[in-house]
Amino acid sequence: MDPVNTTVEYGTHSRSSPGDQWVGDVLVPSLFAGVCFLVGVPGNGLVIWTILCKIPQRSMTVVVLLNLAVADFLVLITLPLWIHSFWDQWVYGLFMCRLLTYIVSFTMYASVFFVTVLSVQRFTAVVFPFASNFWQEKETIYGTVLSVWATSLALASTAYIFRSTTETNGTVLCNDWTYTSDQQEMVDISVEVVFCFLVPFLIMTVCYALVIRRMRRLKFQKKSKSGKLIASVIIAFFACWIPYHIMNMLNISAASLRSSNPKMSTILENAATEAENICTALVFLSSCLNPILYAFAARSFRGGLRGANFDKLFRQMNEDSGEKVTKNLHNPSASTDLSLHNPVGSD
């Protein structure tokens, strides 16, 4: 289940809905989504522009943060269409229903994979510093970025395949799924929970447990601002996503019990339904948090929260990551890719 599926059924509530229900199901979600859009789109856009235009030499850490910003930007620009469907109905057709759901789904996968890469890279730099050169190589950087996006696009394909529109009382909704059985639904949601939550969370927990253990053993340890920032990005990400995946597990349990224990299945479904608004709100909130975290981190540079300090922040992260960046011999303005102008470790 992608986040779009767990929100209020878009278009099911109109201005004529009862007051309390209308406020909770239409007004509040619309306002919250609007704030996420207004904060997150400019914020992530600024991060993307700063890294592409101001940071010609980019470490793996900065490259990952760039791609995280791209993923967040993509999901946030879909919000105006969802907001419109809150107030009216889905008027954009089946293709757009599937496409927007697919965008939300594959950016979810990409975000969690990139956050996992940050954890693994941090682990390598602290625990195996001599092996951290692996992350400086051009092939590693490009290979990691392309692999994450390709895997995300593939795993999210079911969101496009199974998503559909439906019509209820003359109102078209983008809220239907064409699963042919409970088992198919359970498999689809289980794949998402495993690859977007259980496996990444296990990897990150192990990595940071070993990092903390290593840091405690060092008598003289340099406190890295970028290390703290990366940790805050990871913590904020999972704090926003854990409730959503718990809700997913409730839905899996409900689907598995529909035949054997309908009463318990209904209880679990109702519990998931009660939690869906807040869980989905946290999911979209996660897409606009990183620029805010970067802004507060940039306060350590003279000039406060001005965007001009983002480039200083990311340059500092290049240095703190321990990745030696070679001089860029190319024209910085000539490249607009999502990786490097002159990748770390390139000639």
TrEMBL record:
Chief location category: membrane
Topology versus the membrane: Multi-pass membrane protein
Keyword Glycoprotein listed: yes
Protein's UniProt keywords contain ATP-binding: no
InterPro entries per the UniProt record, alphabetical: CCR1-9-like (IPR050119), GPCR_Rhodpsn (IPR000276), GPCR_Rhodpsn_7TM (IPR017452)
Subcellular localization: Cell membrane
Region (Disordered) location: 324-347
Protein name: G-protein coupled receptors family 1 profile domain-containing protein
Organism in which the protein naturally occurs: Pleurodeles waltl
Taxonomic path: Eukaryota, Metazoa, Chordata, Craniata, Vertebrata
